[in-house]
Amino acid sequence: MKISINRLKKYIQLTESPDQIAALLTQSGLEVEAVEEFQSVPGGLEGIVIGEVLTCEKHPDADKLSLTTVDIGTGTPSQIVCGAPNVAAGQKVVVATVGAKLYPSEGEPFEIKKAKIRGQVSEGMICAEDEIGIGKSHAGIMILDTDLPNGTPASAYFEVENDAVLEIGLTPNRADAASHLGVARDLKALLGRPICLPQEKPLSPEKSGPAITVKVQDSKDCPRYAGVVISDLKVGPSPQWLQNFLRSLDLEPINNVVDITNFILHDLGQPLHAFDTDKISDGKIIVGKLAKGTPFVTLDEKERKLSGEELMICDSKGGMCIAGIFGGLHSGVSESTTSIFLESAYFSPDVIRKGSQFHGLKTDASFRFERGTDPNMPVFALKRAVELLQEIAGGKVCSEIIDLYPDPVQDFKIEVEYGHINRLIGKKIEPKEVKSILESLDIRVTEETGVGFTAIVKPYRVDVTREADIIEEVLRIHGFHQVELVENLSTDYLAEHPVKDLNKLQFKLSEILAGQGYFELITNSLTKPQYAEKSGFLDASKNVEIYNKLSEDLGVMRQTLLFSGLEVMAHNINRRQTDLKGFEFGTVYQKTPEGYQEGRRLAIFHSGNRSAESWVEPSKPFGFADLYSTVEKVLEKLNIEVGQVNPIESAPFTYGLELKLGEKILGTLGLVDDKILKLAEVRQEVWYADLDWDLLCKKASGLKRYQEISKFPEVRRDLSLVIDKAVTYDQVKSVAEKAGGKLLKRIGVFDVYQGDKIDSGKKAYALSFILQDSENTLTDKVIDKTMSKLIQAFQDQVGAYIRS
What we know:
The protein is an alpha+beta fold. Helices cover 25% and strands 27% of the residues.
């Protein structure tokens, strides 16, 4: 929906810029999607003036050109070469001065320059109407009949209008704002300024004319129907101001009668329709329905079959118009029309919506009727239209206003409590401000008590029928942005958030691990008591003993999945199946002073070679990186980021890592100690990861974070750092991420060296750094500065030196 700022200023004083008005309306719920400039003539005729031809002679070197001197108000006449056949001395003409940019009716814009034409200097151009975009004629130059002084801007003569137009994305509930008056009402409340409505003038017949009678067959579908007869009309072009207004809204002017109805629709929000009285059979207008399948030809010259449910405006012979939607071909206004019946009605939104949907017709009128127009507006709009018809088209009123309104629509009465206002808004708003806001929106506050009041809402506010609607009105004028966010902010959700299905989560992860070549292990929860007694990392006092033991080997509940998994490894290794990958979801048990405890764990095992021996490449044993990579994939699938990684060299590992999230341990992984392997009778290396499945399930998220791929290229730089063996890669990475900032996207290790070429107790990391800026292409200066910061940070924080 488009709204003209110039037209808004007729209703309310506006000193704010169009952008400020747009921001204000958007904050209040009328979202302004764009602010466009409008000029009734392209370019605004800048640099184009009224001039007078002083002399006109034949060009000495061209038969079809004239050499003129023109007074353009500068004090010195300008010499202009003109090719028009109708140029002559004494004429008032339109002159484009040097530097002016012309926007012709056809073709590309061009700039006027001082030039020589056939040897004669030409300082401008005398224009035809198509050359400045105000018409299509190119038969000759424009000759003006005006007393305006020479040099007067042509924009003043042609009444060029500059305007700003708001494009509002109107939501379906705000039918009241589908007009300039409706938007002005909101600005009245937002700015605290009065609006000025056109004065309603009484109408009385000026002469006798065609007699029209009206019958409404169904007052439910048509609660109000008004109309008046106007005669002595002269149908023709509208005045420039009206054409400018319509064009600013992307509407093409048709004729003064139709243009006035369109003006009223967009200005007041009330659709009107004009019928040629000579085409109304027997002077009867009947508002009702016609039989299903009845053919009807609309203004677009298409024959449509009626559904029998749409409301029709008929005469004694049949349909003339689909009420509130589209006019008929044979009853509309034409150039020969001299007398009209002007209709202004309030139709039921339901019947208009059904008819519009059935015929696939979406018009400006149906847009408003199907959302709900103001039942109190038809007569006021009718009088305003008649006033314009008298002024512009010479019309004379030939009848009293017909107004059939048997059951007037009543105002809405809504009980409101102050406590509910403050609760729903989340902020206390004083009763005085509440009353002021509502009254500025034409909502009367009555029956006030200390607890609440009764709001009286006019029926044009079809969206304000409940207490919550009143509260919304208070909030949008008070300002959504003025409701502060408190520290203990909480939110209620209408949508339900599904509870995590742990079985599905486990199955999903099992599929991923199986897809990477792992076999699932399912082992007994009963195990040997000596594992806890001899392992060195389990507390035998925490064993959960079985009273009725089947055997000593199955005498206690397991405290870890490690030994049951190692038994599977040993069983397979003893049968010459040495390359093993397995995982197990299982429960572990402990006895504590508080009682028995149990928890679910995820165990991952590697042993042997990662790939079988072949002629392509020799076999390679599993290493720590293989296990860590699998754990990373598990965490990535669950959308969990590890907070801290610490090295460990304690049982059951020879060496390994501890993964933490805050203060909680997500899990541990590493190479199983030989003492533990011997206890389980395993005769080769085993890599083992023990993850807290309960904690993983709790922290798992189904939400993934994405970011736009940068259109700027990445840059790679490499460094070789020599550091103490005690310094971990995690420490190096943490230092780099802080020093590199937003430009550092990734860090990688592509070589690790320990040997006689560096000092004992040292190691060398060959690191790659990927740099990228999301907003600009990186320059050498920025790259060098970032790398210098990284080098300095490594030297200061981890005692590194750069190996060349």
